[in-house]
Amino acid sequence: IQSFTLNYQVNQGAVQSQNYSLNLASGFGSTVSFSIPLTLPNTDQFSLRCWISSVNNLAADNAQKNDTIGGVYFTALNTGTYNIGTGQYFNNLTEALSQVQRGGIAGSVVLQLLESQTGHFSLSTFPTVAGSQLLLTSPANNPAILTPNSAEPLFALKNTSRIQMRHLVFARNALFGNSIQWLVQAEKCSLISFSNCRFSGMRSSNATTNRLVQFNNCENTLVDSNTFEHGYGGLHLNVESNEISRLHTISNNNLRELLFTGILANVPFSSTAWHEQLVIRKNSLFNQNQPNQNSDGIHLQQCRRFVIEGNTMRGTIGRHAIFLQN
């Protein structure tokens, strides 16, 4: 090849073309650069197509497909605050999380909810650059309320890290209130935190539904200054064989009117796993109504290197204020 024209097109925009002359033998390659830099959209997905034409000034190629490459790509959210609500940067939370899931984040990204939302929300492993973190929040004086529209967990995190949630309300509703097992469920996550949030369930005697928050095989978590209310259970830490549950800090939370255990570190029957390095400090547990007779304020199973201090428990208790097992 002695000459050709290189072309590219972003979405359905104008085609950019540039001519090149070189001596390229069969089986070899070369790198060329456009004099006009490629400009990509700031957010969401885009298509990029690149192809060559006019090879050695010959007529059009009858098999042009093998001269063309391209695809659909997603861009990351850069450092900044992105408002969510009607007419905002993102119209709803589902749209915002979809962008994060596909394109990832590059820096410290704040998603700020300006309106309450209904749905099933989730995040799993998404692209990031080193040091990136994601904060999902809403105004402290007018927190957004998240409610479910299905029997799935209201908010599910899986295999994610460096996520903070602040000033949010996670609430069951009459339609799906007794059919969701967990309001919030995190599985195999690290460096996640919930602060100044409210987790609101419904008083139910059903042990398999109406639970509030579960961390399953997680590490490096912070649960601080939240309210857990009216669920079957409050905060549930679970670890399975050959998995990790460690470095959990649970502090300054209010747990009230729960039918079962407020803070539970659970290990499945016959499992050899352990919870390690738990700090449970300055939490307040209160029940005016009678909870389940087998419930405890704090119940830890197979834990080592833990601290329990400065917690208060008032009202009625089903079995123990603090129960340490194995």
How would you sum up this structure, described in words?
The chain is mainly beta and 326 residues long. Helix content is 3%, strand content 48%. It has one helix and 29 strands. The chain has one helix at residues 93-103, and strands spanning 3-10, 16-21, 45-53, 68-74, 77-84, 105-113, 117-118, 121-123, 133-137, 144-147, 155-158, 161-166, 168-171, 182-187, 190-195, 198-200, 211-216, 219-224, 227-229, 235-238, 245-251, 254-256, 263-266, 275-281, 284-287, 296-301, 303-309, 312-315, 320-325. Strand 5, helix 1 and strand 6 (105-113) form a beta-alpha-beta unit. The N and C termini lie far apart (75 Å).
Number of helical elements: 1
Biggest sheet overview = 9 strands, parallel
Coarse morphology: elongated
- Helix percentage: under 10%
Point out poorly predicted stretches. Answer: none
Question: What spatial order of strands do you see in the largest sheet?
Answer: 5-6-9-12-15-18-21-24-27
How large is the radius of gyration?
Answer: 26 Å
Order of helices and strands: EEEEEHEEEEEEEEEEEEEEEEEEEEEEEE
Strand content: over 45%
Give the structural class. Answer: mainly beta
How far apart lie the N and C ends?
75 Å
Mean pLDDT across the residues is: 89
Number of strands: 29
